[in-house]
Design brief:
- Strands 1-7-6-5-4-2-3 form a 7-stranded mixed sheet, with helices on both faces. Strands 8-10-9 form a 3-stranded antiparallel sheet, with helices on one face.
- Helices cover 43% and strands 14% of the residues.
- The longest helix has 16 residues.
- The relative contact order is 0.14.
- By secondary structure, the protein is of the alpha/beta class.
- The protein folds into 2 domains: 234 residues, 3-Layer(aba) Sandwich (Aspartate Aminotransferase, domain 2), CATH 3.40.640.10; 91 residues, Aspartate Aminotransferase, domain 1 (Alpha-Beta Complex), CATH 3.90.1150.
């Protein structure tokens, strides 16, 4: 990947003359069956641009309370886009973070001068804080179709959309067919050092390109970064199933340890959300204490809450390293 980055041809992306960026955008748009794509520095910017391009200040976004857009993006939907958020319940959903058409219908406000205007519905696939779960295709189609019929634009936060396609055994166009825009991260499952893309119709992407410049996201010789994305599409997509298999193995092993109390069958992709047992919390401390303890043992992880730790499998890990990690965790 680094050789590809060093040897690539570059231009000026702000002036639309970088051939490598153009090649990445055109290829990605084709993979998702959309008209256009825009290369941006981060997934957070891609999501914010999707909001800016499809809403106006004062509009309302409907999404899940554990969504990345709400939880991890610095309140950009409010501070920059001037939008409010209303949560859609998942009580009737088969999985955490997945929203049904019925729940969305209950959350949409009627037209009234007292209320903000519902404008954008966002989903996350895979859903990070839901445990890396994948949207079932039938629920995805039904909910997104309902949203559009209700007059909403639909955006998919697809930071790990590649993993969703792998887990479901479907192509990317199938996952993007019912959404107006979709963000796709290159620096997670695909292993690039930086970069995401926003994909959609030409008009929306043209608006997003202008907003990207406004936010300071216009990059000049960005082909050195886009080259990593092209390399990843060629070499890292087909191997994502290996990460999923290693996550499943890790989850099964951790679930047998007395320090954890969770169902490994709920692991669907490359994220393992392992809840600590009461015994582990009483003996050592909460998840943040355990995170430090695991890091001291050479295991990098993330405390998602006071009682749950997230482990992620990725292309830098092989089977031997997974075995080593399981052994080290079990020895604590």
């Amino acid at each position: 990947m680094r050789k590809a980055m060093a040897n690539t041809e570059v231009g000026d992306d702000v002036m639309r003359t970088d051939p490598t960026v153009i090649a990445l955008e055109e290829r990605t748009a084709g993979l998702f069956g959309k008209q256009a794509a825009l290369f941006v520095p981060s997934g957070t910017m891609a999501n914010l641009l999707a909001i800016l391009a499809q809403t106006s200040a004062g509009d309302e976004i409907l999404t899940h309370s554990e969504s990345h857009i709400f939880y991890y993006e610095g309140g950009g939907y409010a501070a920059v886009a001037g939008c409010s958020i209303k949560f859609v319940d998942d009580a009737d959903s088969p999985k955490p973070g997945i929203m049904t058409a019925a729940s969305l219908g209950k959350a949409i406000r009627p037209s009234d001068v007292h209320f903000p205007t519902p404008k954008l519905f966002t989903i996350e696939n895979t859903h990070n804080r839901g445990g890396g779960v994948v949207w079932p295709m039938d629920v995805l189609k039904e909910t997104c179709t309902f949203a559009k019929e209700a007059g909403l634009c639909v955006h998919t936060d697809g930071a790990r959309i590649w993993n969703a396609a792998c887990a479901l055994g479907v192509d990317l166009q199938s996952l993007a067919a019912h959404t107006d825009t979709i963000s796709a991260c290159l620096s997670k499952g695909l292993g690039c050092p930086v970069g995401s893309l926003l994909i959609g119709d030409q008009e929306t992407i043209d608006i997003a390109r202008h907003k990207r410049k406004m936010l300071g996201g216009g990059m000049r010789q960005a082909g050195v970064l886009a080259a990593a994305g092209l390399y990843a599409l060629d070499h890292h997509l087909d191997r994502l199933g290996e990460d999923h298999a290693r996550a499943t193995k890790t989850a099964s092993a951790l679930a047998e340890m007395p320090m954890f109390d969770f169902d490994p069958a709920k692991v669907e992709t490359n994220l393992v959300y392992a809840k600590l047992s009461e015994q582990a919390v009483e003996a050592v401390g909460d998840a943040f204490v355990w995170q430090d303890k695991l890091e001291a043992a050479g295991i990098l992880c993330y405390a998602e809450s006071v009682d749950t730790i997230r482990f992620v499998t990725h292309l830098d890990l092989d089977d031997a390293m997974i075995e080593e990690a399981i052994g080290r965790i079990g020895s604590l």
